[in-house]
Amino acid sequence: MLQYHYYVSAGPQCDESTRIYKVGIGTSLQAQRDFQFLTDYAARHGHYFTFVSDASDVFIMKLRRSLAEYDVQMTYCSARDLVRLFKDANGTTLNPAVLRSIHSQQTLTNIDYRISSNLARRASSPAKRSR
After folding, report:
1. Tens digit of each residue's pLDDT, the chain (131 residues)
2. Which residues touch 114 (CB under 8 Å, ≥6 apart)?
3. Which of 7, 20, 56, 98 is 20 to 30 A off residue 50, Cα-Cα?
4. What is the pTM of this model?
5. Which helix (H) or strand (E) holds 112?
């Protein structure tokens, strides 16, 4: 019998590098080791890993809606396949220093990126209070 979990791999903020997985985890000994690896890996890297429930469905739906401009799709896979992906280092995100460097370069060279970045920063900053 398979149990399904959501695994969201993202950097410091969700963007086009964000990956969303719906992972099927069995009940075998190997599947339980894979589950433990994914739990530890998610905790170490600050990723989202949780059982599929009504609340997690709503969260994933809102996340996908917020990432619609990047066309982030959900990937269905087994726990074994996802563990192999992470161990092969094909699915890991870049470290924060590299992400900041890419952001700086894009801000300097791409006017559309600069505008959307400034708008996103303004939207996420707290509202100023008038006295």
Report:
1. 889 999 999 988 888 889 999 999 999 999 999 999 999 999 999 999 999 999 999 999 999 999 888 888 899 999 999 999 888 865 445 567 777 778 888 888 888 888 888 888 777 766 655 55
2. 106, 107, 108
3. 98
4. 0.67
5. helix 111-124
Boundaries of every domain in the chain: 3-93, 94-126
Distances (CA, A) of 26 to 6, 8, 34, 36, 77: 14, 19, 9, 12, 12
- 8 A C-beta contact, residue 34 and residue 80: yes
3-state helix, strand, coil in the chain (%, to 5): 55, 20, 30
Using DSSP's 3-state secondary structure scheme, residue 5 falls into: strand
